[in-house]
Amino acid sequence: MNASKVNESLSGQYFVAAWASMGTASYGLRLWDQNGALCYDSGAPAVIVTFAAGDWTYIGMEQLSVGRRYVWGINKALGTGEYVSINPFTMACHNEGTGGSCAIGVDYANGRIMMYSLAFTAWTNQGHRPFLCAKLLA
Questions:
Q1: Residue 119 CB burial class (10 angstroms; 0-12, 13-18, ≥19)
Q2: What global pTM score does this model have?
Q3: Number of domains observed in the structure of the chain
Q4: Does residue 77 lie within any of the structural domains?
Q5: 39, part of any domain
């Protein structure tokens, strides 16, 4: 996904998930919390977390004409029907400056997930930035 190119057609599949249940079933099981908010509906499709990590390995830096591209990776080959959660990558990558944009990619050939930062500087240890994969079960 590339948010900066609004006039391009993207290929691939995606889904949008929320950490809340929706009342979609005509019959089945529904559970509410103590305040009357719906917490579970047996008819709502479930999102199953298939992989979680945060141990990014610093791969290196490329000098660009303006700034630098820092690269980290996690050894993880995506399985059939498995999706990457992009939520943790909407934040800037950590550095001693004002923060650099953060992007994510999939290196299918080498079976790993890549994290990129475009900045003038970046900390090579990005801490425990969460990474999740999930499958949608309908």
A1: buried
A2: 0.69
A3: 1
A4: yes
A5: no
Helix/strand/coil (H, E, C) string of 29-42? CEEECCCCCEEEEC
Range of the domain at 108: 54-129
Tens of pLDDT along the chain (138 residues) come to 444 455 666 666 777 766 667 767 788 888 888 998 888 888 877 788 899 988 889 999 889 887 888 888 999 998 888 888 877 666 666 666 666 677 888 888 999 998 888 777 777 776 667 888 888 875
Report the alpha-carbon distance of residue 34 to residue 38 in Å, rounded.
10
In a domain, 102, yes or no: yes
DSSP state of 69: E
27 in a domain, yes or no? no
Give me the torsion for CA of 56, 62, 68, 74, rounded to 10°: -10
Between the alpha carbon of residue 129 and those of residues 28, 34, 78, 119, the distances in Å are: 38, 33, 19, 18
